[in-house]
Amino acid sequence: MKKSLFLCIFFGTVFYLSTALAVSSSVSAGYTFTGELPNGLVNGQKVFYTTTASYRNGVLTITFDGGADFEWVWLFAPDHNRMRVKSASVWSREFAGFVEGQSVTWTFTVRKNHSEANNVGYAHTWVIKNDGEVPSLPENNEVSLPTPWSVVTVGADCGTSLVTSSGITDYYSLEGAIGHYDLVNISKDNFTFPQRVQSGDFLDRLSAFTNDDNYKGYTMVRESLDPESRFIAARTYTLTFPDLYNPTRIRYEQRYDILVREVTGGVIKQLNGSGYSSWENTGVSLVLVRKGDNFSIYNNSTGQFTTSVATVILPLHKEVFLGKAMFTENPRAVWGKMSFSLK
User: Fold this and answer.
1) How far apart are CA 333 and CA 342, in angstroms?
2) d(Cα 88, Cα 67) in Å, to the nearest integer?
3) Which entry of 7, 162, 176, 248 is 20 to 30 Å from 279 by CA?
4) Coil, strand or helix: which one is 154?
5) How confident is the model at residue 14 (pLDDT cuts 50, 70, 90)?
6) What is the pTM of this model?
7) DSSP-based three-state secondary structure for 139
């Protein structure tokens, strides 16, 4: 065990903890660690696991292999990211935006049979080194969205976008242009927009996700494809808060963020708040529901979408354009990648 200075960032507040922390680190081309999650027990036993990190073609990949049947695995690197199932026992997550020579630090929290374990205070650190270039995805990985979906450009031509399939039905990734807002000056949009025509009332799950802090994925409803069109866009995300008295206990808060242009050619307004909070990760999801001129965020904490946590009144046409979009306040972010579901 060695003496370390550990930087913790919790939602804008920075704490420096000078204490004896077991921090595994590496500067090799590729990272591998095998050991136990030191905090908490699952089924009365420590979780034995292996984690790897690799960097190829500008993409950082972190994996967790700790056995089968976990309900979920969260990766904090440095933001909270729910890992994706890669195989029966392996979970993984990919990140863009890292560069060779950059240091990345991460921890895990896992859950199984109502028990949780983590390695908070015992982080992994790796100075990224390129594992070697690998071939790009084959051209046949590029797909077209199923009818009636299509990808359009809102505003000026902003480059050739790319839609790829994740291999799971109705799940796709988009590389394309990012829309901008600064809440003061921008009254015209310019972004890549996978969309379809939607008529009347509807319910749409907020499923447009990115792994980049510079931009976010939204579900968007536009009155038209004109760059000055009125619109409402919403996204959901989860914040986690460790219990100060019990670091193995984590509180989950499902939050929402809404962007709205109420007047054609007007600036964008932003609304945000909490949709649901619990000491249990209950799998609550948020949805956007249209009922006439009312656009509401609902949660399903009761198993049904009966609880409205926010409503915006916006008298759009009966027929609108419903889709997914990336937006940012960062003027330097112009191109990004998001995953989304058509379900």
Assistant:
1) 25
2) 8
3) 7
4) strand
5) very low
6) 0.59
7) helix
What is the CB neighbour count within 10 angstroms for residue 103?
11
Cβ neighbors of 135 (< 8 A, separation 6 or more) are none
- CA–CA–CA angle 338, 340, 343 (5° rounding): 175
Tokens 């980049």 belong to 212
The pair of three-digit structure tokens given for residue 10, joined into one six-digit string: 């919790």
Q: Output the furthest CA–CA distance in the chain (Å, rounded).
A: 64
Peptide bond into 38 cis (omega under 30): no
Q: What are 281-295's pLDDT values in tens digits?
A: 555 567 899 999 999
Summarised one tens digit per residue, pLDDT across range 197-214 is: 999 999 888 877 776 778
**Domains, in order of start, for the chain:** 2-127 (2.60.40), 139-341 (2.60.120.200)
Q: What is the pLDDT of residues 81-107, one digit of tens each?
A: 788 877 667 888 888 777 888 888 899
Single-letter residue type at 297: I
pLDDT of residue 223: 97
Instruction: Round to whole Å and give the CA distance between 333 and 240.
Output: 26
In single-letter form, the type of residue at position 338 comes to M
> What totals of helices (H) and strands (E) does the chain contain, helices first?
0, 29
Residue 181 CA to residue 140 CA, distance in Å, equals: 35
Helices marked H in 160-312 — which ranges? Answer: none
Phi and psi torsions of 44, nearest 5°: 80, 10
How far apart, in whole angstroms, are the C-alpha atoms of residue 121 and residue 8? 10
- The reported pLDDT for the residue numbered 305 is 58
pLDDT on residue 221:
97
**Pairing mode, if any, of strands 307-313 and 48-56?**
unpaired
C-beta atoms surrounding 102 within 10 Å: 12
Residues 293, 297, 303, 304: what is their CA dihedral angle, to the nearest 10 degrees?
-10
